[in-house]
Amino acid sequence: xxxxxxxxxxxxxxxxxxxxxxxxxxxxxxxxxxxxxxxxxxxxxxxxxxxxxxxxxxxxxxxxxxxxxxxxxxxxxxxxxxxxxxxxxxxxxxxxxxxxxxxxxxxxxxxxxxxxxxxxxxxxxxxxxxxxxxxxxxxxxxxxxxxxxxxxxxxxxxxxxxxxxxxxxxxxxxxxxxxxxxxxxxxxxxxxxxxxxxxxxxxxxxxxxxxxxxxxxxxxxxxxxxxxxxxxxxxxxxxxxxxxxxxxxxxxxxxxxxxxxxxxxxxxxxxxxxxxxxxxxxxxxxxxxxxxxxxxxxxxxxxxxxxxxxxxxxxxxxxxxxxxxxxxxxxxxxxxxxxxxxxxxxxxxxxxxxxxxxxxxxxxxxxxxxxxxxxxxxxxxxxxxxxxxxxxxxxxxxxxxxxxxxxxxxxxxxxxxx
Length: 418
Hints:
Order of helices and strands: EEEHHHEEEEHHHHHHHEEEHEEE
Distance between the termini: 125 Å
Shape: flat
Helix content: 25-40%
Radius of gyration: 48 Å
Strand content: 5-15%
Structural class: alpha+beta
Largest sheet: 4 strands, mixed
Strand order of the largest sheet: 8-10-9-11
Mean pLDDT: 73
């Protein structure tokens, strides 16, 4: 193509028939000199299926309407484009050997012969010129007192020692420098692309600004510093990578430690649950569900504690009822027992210990007494007297009665103060 513009990239129209495509224009010193326009697309793109010059020119007109296609692209060039096979960028690679000494000659490699990579980082020409500079310095520094071959035998190994690390470094920089500059990398994972840009922004605009002594910008930025060789650029970028990996590992270990600590606390709570449940006995469920069990028989241990007016030592005051639950031995076929501590205010004269009929304590009485709050006033049966349990009236001198209460039976047992 022939154009006097100084553009380096030609962007397509928004409604391009075969999708977005850019034309890359190589710079030249003479504006009238023909400039090559590169089309860089994935191998499966439909552009490579265009089979004639007219199809190529029609695609260019529709894709770049702002470009005078008929004036800058000849029919012969369009036909050559349609007939030619597209090339391919090589994967970043390098040669560990840059020279070979023969008995009467020497072979030396520079440029793409020792490091080949896509034009992602724009260092193809620069790296080749760097090779030439290193070769010239090696030849100038070699001793040629014994003739030209003696000079080559001294210079070529010196050049290889200097060029080998540079060739490897520039190839590795090309792998991570700017791999998404061209659409040929679209087949990569979107997450991988997002990760690359996040890493680039973190290094270049955050860490290297806040802590420049510890972190460096991305490698694609470092290669633009002429005072750094490719080997220095790669080592600097790798130091930042190792420090970022160390920070990531430290964060992962801290998170794992916190997770283990939380799990240990949960496990400790689970292991201490029985004791915690025993300590929380006052808030245990009421007896109503227990006494309403469908088991064949229920055993309930009633423990009456003696106490003077105002309540037994360490217990609740007279006139209140409290409950505590603890597992007791149960007979075969019976549901688990419960312990009930009851303190009642006498309804008659102090010290009176009259006896009443041996009627069983109904489930509804105990359910009503123990349901609800932890402590509540004692119930007095109809007639104004204190509640009778197992034939003993609860007066000032509280009797102890260990009784077995069945659904249809009475209360029997021996107690003090009969």
